[in-house]
Every structure is written in C-alpha cells, then in structure tokens.
Design brief:
Layout: E1 8-14, H1 19-44, H2 57-67, H3 77-96, E2 114-116, E3 121-124, E4 127-130, E5 139-142, E6 152-161, E7 166-174, E8 186-192, E9 198-201, E10 205-209, H4 212-233, H5 240-277, E11 280-287, H6 299-307, H7 310-323, E12 327-332, E13 353-355, E14 362-364, H8 365-379, E15 390-394, H9 399-408, H10 421-428
Parallel strand pairs: 8-11, 10-15, 11-12
Antiparallel strand pairs: 1-7, 2-6, 3-4, 4-5, 6-7, 8-9, 9-10, 13-14
The structure holds zinc ion (ZN).
C-alpha cells in the first residue's frame, strides 16, 4: 500500500498478449458497458410508469449483476465494475456540459478498454499479475526496466491503438518520487498564443517559445482531412473501398494526434524550463478557455481558434510545473493583449508587433499579453507593469532534430537547444 502520495504518472508499454485473448477481454468489457446502457434506458423508458426513473449507479450495477449472473465470466469482478461505472462517468461528464450541447451516452459499443483496478493487480518480482474471473489464470505483464522501482501500480488498462493496429498497456503508477522544491519565490506569467505557443516571463525578461511546426501540422492536417473526406463521400456506403478509405482516415487522425501530443509535450517542457531558469515559485497562466465561445471571428479565425488546443497544453504545463514544485494559477486574460503596458490605453494590435498610438511604445505583441497577465495577477489590473526589456526566443528542445532526422536521415545532435538563432547556424554548417 502507498502511504504518502507521490507523483502519479501513466506509462505506455508494449503488449505481448495473444491477439484473440486481448480481443476477448475488450469485447467482454464492451458487452458489459452496453448491457448497462441498455438496462438504464429500458428502465427510463418503461411504459406505464408515471414518472421517468433515472437509475442510480449503484442500483444499475446491482441490476446488471443480476441479469448477467449466468453468463460465463471472463473479467475480474472489479474490471466488470469499471466497465459499468464507465457509463455513469460518461453521464456525469455529459451533465456537466449539457449547456454546450453535450448529449448523454446512447451508443452501444462492442469494444471497450479493459481496466484493472488496484484490487485486481498483484506484483510478483518484476511481473504484474492481472486477475481475471475466478478459475482463470491471471495475465502476466513483464515490467520494463524503468518501471521496476515504482512504488505501486494503481491501474492497468488494455488499450487498442487504432493507428498502429495493436494493443498497448497503459500503466498508472505511483512513482515514489516527491515533487521538487520550487526553485524560488518569483512569479512568472504565461501567455498562450495561437502563432507562438507560449510566452513566459516576469518584469525583467520574457522568453518567446516558437514552434512554427505546430501550425504547419494543424493546417496541413485540416487540408489533408478535407481532401480525404471529400473523396470518401463519393464511395458507396458499406463497400470495401469505402471501408479502406475510412481506415486511412482513422490512421491519419491518429498520426496527427501523436505528432501534436509530442509537440505539446516539448512546448510545455520548454515553458517549465524557462520558468525554472527564472526561479519561479508560481506560474500565472492566461485563462483562454472561453476564447472561442459564441463569437464569430470569420472563417479563417474560427478555424484557427477551433484547432488551437490550449486546454491540453495548459494541463501539460500544470503537471510539469507541479513536479517542479511550482503552483499554477489561472488569470483572466481579457484585454491583456490590447492594453498598453506603458500608458494603459487600449487598442487592437495589428500584425506581430504592438505599437501604442498614444505614447508610441512598441514591443512584441505576445510579450504585451504576458506582462499584462502578470500585472493582473500582481496588481489586479492590466497595464500596471512595464514590459520586460530583455526578450529571448527559444525553440522547444529536440523539435528540429526530430524533423531533420526524419527528412534527411542525419544523426540526432542537440542543435535545437538555446536561443532561436542556434538551429539556423547549425543548419548552415
Ligand atoms: Zn501607450
């Protein structure tokens, strides 16, 4: 058992389970989920009932256990619970965002990720034993070397990777490491942007994290997807050709997701590293959650805003910052890009530079956002702090290296570290 809570992380490792066995497990999970869903709505729609009855999770689980009492079991009792709970978790999520048009889960599913809770996991040396139903031998998972000294495994999931067409294990582990002590008492602010993913800094110095590849990938993906979807719409439904095109689209989406996740991890790492260098104890992030809500900015900007996955980036920054011992606070970001840090007047900037029409003050546009977020955090209002004099540019570590290796087959060298100029010089050599 784990007494003191240390950091919880998810690791993805290879799955060497027999394909048929893995399929059977996830099919069983899907069947249990579907059974829960069907029972739930049958009770809800029951004819003759005076009022609609919304089954509680507890009642539904009892009822379903009764219905499936004669089925030959395959899953551990708690894995079964996890599949049943899945439906009610989805209901809860839908309820929370009903105003935004979310629907309650209503689709039957034949496949579902099988989940082992802590109670179904035993450890024997470097092997995990995942329990199945009574009488069946447990599934053995060899722990890779980097996970052998973890404190405990909290959850194991059998996840099907739709792009690679294979199964993977997702291990949720408590790694036994305590978060670090914050590097200092400083406060830095982060402005998340669409062109430059982030600007980090305080009153003295700002670091602009540049990542052109991100937008390049997003726009390219949108174009390729539109082209593929158009071609797909001409195919006869249910035909073999249509199925093949659909599979190609799934693969493309999955690949895009992987590339974006990778970049976002690297960007968030660069943000947190910059904050550590400035000895921050607190990171104030501009809250852009409602940036795309109910406002029509035109075709081009709407597309950009909808593709901008700031929530994920914020999550990544948050957990990486917490591991470094820093606190993360959200700050209202309204008018932070428009307020002049020098005289406090407001106007909309054009292009990448902000130039004040009243006092003539000029600096990088995203730095204005960054300093005003800091100003709002510290003084409660934008436009109270002067913009930092020193501006650095940085490209996330290993980003260019990754691209160059893939394109030209050159060996990986650490050329992309440091300021924005280095990679260009290195590329010229
Ligand atoms: Zn001004």
């Amino acid at each position: 058992m784990c007494d003191t809570v240390t950091m919880i992380r998810t690791h993805i490792i290879d799955c060497h389970l027999n394909r048929a066995e893995a399929d059977a497990l996830n099919r069983a999970s899907g069947a249990i989920y579907t059974q829960t869903l069907v029972t739930h709505y049958r009770v809800y729609r029951k004819r003759g009932a005076r009022t609609r009855h919304w089954l509680s999770q507890f009642a539904a689980m009892r009822l379903n256990d009764y219905f499936t009492r004669d089925d030959p079991p395959l899953l551990h009792a708690h894995s079964k619970d996890a599949a049943q709970e899945g439906f009610y978790k989805a209901c809860k999520t839908a309820k929370a965002s009903r105003e935004k048009g979310a629907k309650y889960p209503h689709k039957r599913t034949w496949w579902r990720t099988t989940i082992w809770k802590q109670s179904g996991i035993r450890r024997q040396g470097d092997t995990l034993l995942l329990a199945r139903a009574r009488g069946l031998p447990p599934i053995m998972v060899e722990l890779p070397e980097h996970l052998r000294d973890v404190l405990c495994v909290l959850e194991v999931r059998l996840v099907y990777d739709r792009c690679a067409h294979l199964y993977t294990w997702h291990l949720v582990v408590e790694n036994g490491k305590q978060p670090k002590v914050a590097p200092g008492p400083n406060v830095v602010s982060v402005d998340l942007g669409e062109i430059h993913p982030a600007v980090v800094g305080d009153e003295q110095q700002a670091t602009i994290i540049t990542c052109r590849e991100r937008r390049h990938e997003q726009q390219g993906h949108a174009k390729r997807l539109a082209k593929l979807s158009k071609a797909l719409s001409t195919k006869r439904k249910g035909s073999r050709r249509e199925r093949r095109w659909r599979a190609a689209r799934t693969r493309m989406r999955a690949k895009h997701k992987r590339i974006m996740h990778d970049m976002e991890h690297k960007i968030s790492r660069a943000v947190v590293d910059a904050a550590v260098e400035q000895q921050a104890g607190t990171i104030a992030i501009g809250d852009v959650r409602d940036v795309a809500d109910g406002v029509n900015h035109g075709k081009k900007h709407n597309q950009q805003a909808s593709q901008w996955n700031h929530g994920h980036l914020r999550q990544l920054i948050t957990y990486k910052a917490e591991a470094e011992g820093m606190a993360v606070e959200l700050v209202d970001e309204h008018y932070t890009t428009q307020t002049c840090p020098n005289c406090g007047c407001r106007h909309k900037p054009r292009g990448r530079n902000y130039t004040c029409g009243r006092c003539g003050f000029s600096t990088h546009r995203d730095v204005v956002g960054q300093i005003n977020i800091l100003s709002r955090y510290k003084a409660g209002q934008a436009g109270r702090l002067r913009a930092p004099a020193e501006i650095k540019h940085r490209i996330p570590h290993n980003l260019r290296v990754m691209r160059r290796c893939r394109d030209t087959g050159q060996p990986a060298m650490a050329v992309a570290r440091g300021t924005g100029r280095q990679p260009r010089e290195a590329a010229a050599l």
